[in-house]
Amino acid sequence: MSNKILKQFCVVEFIADQTIEVVPKTWLSEDNKKCTFPSNRPRGFKKIQEDPDSGPDPLWKSWEIVVKTSSDSFDRANTKAKKHLKPSYVDSSDIEIGAGSSQSTGQVNVEGIEEINATNQAIEPIPITINYDERLSTLIEEFRAFQVTSLQNQLILQEDIKDLKTIILRSLSTSSQLRSSNIVWPIKNQEQLQEVNEILSADNAVFNLEVAFFSRLGGDSVTLAVNNTLKAVIKHEFALILRFTDSSNKAAFGGTLCCKLVKDSVRQFYYKDGNVLSEKIKLDLVESRLDSFIAKWLRDSVNRGEEGKQKRTKAKNAGTEVNQARTGAEAAESNAESD
């Protein structure tokens, strides 16, 4: 059909693999013997393919083709294309190797097909087409976001389980202490904090029993020991409205007997049984450092529990990261001062 006037859409057969496609006439060469077509269909390809005025991408390869027919409508051309489809299967019984052929010529005789010189003919790569579905892309993106969130939650859960396991094992390995007080831990509100402070101040023996009880918790570091003890002493909802000092117009925890209870419990955990401590642990057990660890734990309460989960989700959706409190020795020293 190279000498005929073609309509807007052409039904072409690719010589390389004898596949049939409908393409805009603008994709054909001037002699209508070649067609520019992608090896892999890009996103939105169908929309481009159905546009009679669309031009081919400069990066697409040019293929040798035979124009079968044409039409002014893509749908009519597509219907005509189906009539030109033919099976690509060739029965092996129809293929005969010529008896007089040699390995150097490699000629193959196929019934109904002219003889081909397999050695000299260059084999062109067959264009591979993949139908793109935007819905599938959306589902994949949503699934990947779900994976990221799930992994983050798993890491948080693993840390909580690790802390809980450590506390339980240490509690089981230590003989239970008899406690004569009626204190119910953890403390849930300001009124209960005041009541506990009064009980601890009224009887020093009760205070010492509570210290011995909480000293079983401990941790792999002084910071973790402080955090584990505070978790057992203060309920999360109450920690949200507590600070180490009252400078932020919130209830102050520093200076109370409960605060002293936490520090003494951590010290007793490390100094019991005559343990030899490293210089770093000794430095972390001084009063100012323990105060800074407690202040940091109280301030970071907004990043724990349901509030922390909502904060992380909001930060993720906004493409930002949740602000993390400074860590390390210098940060520890400044935490109490900033509270």
Automatic annotation (TrEMBL):
Stretch list, region Disordered: 304-339
Record's protein name: DUF4806 domain-containing protein
Organism encoding this protein: Folsomia candida
